[in-house]
Amino acid sequence: MKDVRVISTWTDLTRDSAVYLLFTFSAIKVSQFIYRCFQSSEMSSFSMETHPEALRRERILSSKLYFNVPESKVSIIYSSAYDISFMGIEKLHPFDSTKWRRVCKFLVSDGFLEEKSIVEPLEASNSDLLVVHSLSYLNSLKSSATVARITEVPPVAFFPNFLVQQKVLSPFRKQVGGTILAAKLAVERGWAINVGGGFHHCTAERGGGFCAFADISLCIHFAFLRLSISRVMIIDLDAHQGNGHETDLGDDSRVYILDMYNPEIYPYDYSARRFIDQKVEVMSGTSTDEYLRKLDKALEVAFRNFQPEMVVYNAGTDILDGDPLGLLKASYTLKVIIIFLFEQNVSNLVTLLVQISPDGITSRDEKVFRVAREREIPVVMLTSGGYMKSNARVIADSIENLSRQGLIKTQLDSAST
Questions:
Q1: What's the rounded Cα separation, in Å, for the pair 157 and 1?
Q2: What is the pTM of this model?
Q3: In this structure, are residues 244 and 233 in contact, taking their beta carbons and an 8 Å threshold?
Q4: What is the pLDDT of residues 276-325, one digit of tens each?
Q5: What are the DSSP E strand ranges found in 315-391?
Q6: β-pair partners for 211
Q7: Chain mean position to CA 34
Q8: Which class for 233: exposed (0-12), middle (13-18), buried (19 or more C-beta within 10 A)?
Q9: Are 384 and 345 in contact (CB under 8 A)?
Q10: Which of the residue ranges 20-29, 141-150, 154-163, 200-209 would you say has the lowest mean pLDDT?
Q11: pLDDT, mean of residues 269-282
């Protein structure tokens, strides 16, 4: 019996030892696995932090801003969320903050567009914006005073930032989503118009001139990676110099910048002007005919010098005769006041402005679309600046002309509907 008890005890000890050893071995293996995972995660994080291009690539590839647009939609992008309404304070800036809605309303009422065929974009997230912007810049927008400076509406500084985010910055982010999506649509269908966007004064690190986010820079970075585009031409015909995209992209050989602007007005960014590949300065008093002649020559030179795979056309209408921000900054306004007070010659006030007629805007847009479409180059149009109530009508008329000329298609075939 004693021998049996010894054997039984020995068996129990052996079994317990085996279980203990198995548990210990398993624990070691699990610990090693967890450590390797942690180390891999840490190295991946380190790699992303030390390689910003890898992080940018990851953000672009994971973005939801590109999505498939059904054939029942045309290549015109707009959302009611574009429009800025903030207890009437938006009226303190000369920019027509409902311009975008009114453009689409005219197109629908004139029979050139069905409301149900308009494409609504997604709003750009912080991750999307970080493709170009720094985290410190995005954090700076948590200060209402910063947003007030960018939008040039001082009372905004006194509102809680959550309201500023919702009422001011969210519409801008929605328009950014529209600009980015427009590139995808243009590549697929030959053209796209974002009835908004064109925030060409904003750089990766600083906003200004009613531009809080660098949608043009973002659009191009997305196109490089997601659309396999390797050469982009920016044609900026807003009255003001496009110092934002020039600062961000001016040293990128894949981007060619044609900027036709009035050097006598904001932003006076001489540093950014160094990055313009083709600079066409349009002085105050330029007539429609002279402007269009300059544009013809500029387009001929641009497409001779550079063969783009996509055109981003910043089609600001603030070159219109009488636009109030043809004289945006105090120094220029002072010049006008002096002439008025001391010379009492109203005609001189008119000659200080670029005097492009509404028909001139229509011709301008047609020239840009024609030169791109004839070469089968996808073209993205952004409406950018334009500060009179009449601008919406002028933009709509120009889009309708593009449709009549067969350069774009705003009406769907019955089979598509």
A1: 94
A2: 0.83
A3: no
A4: 999 999 998 899 999 999 999 999 999 999 999 999 999 999 999 766 55
A5: 379-382
A6: 208
A7: 42
A8: buried
A9: no
A10: 20-29
A11: 97
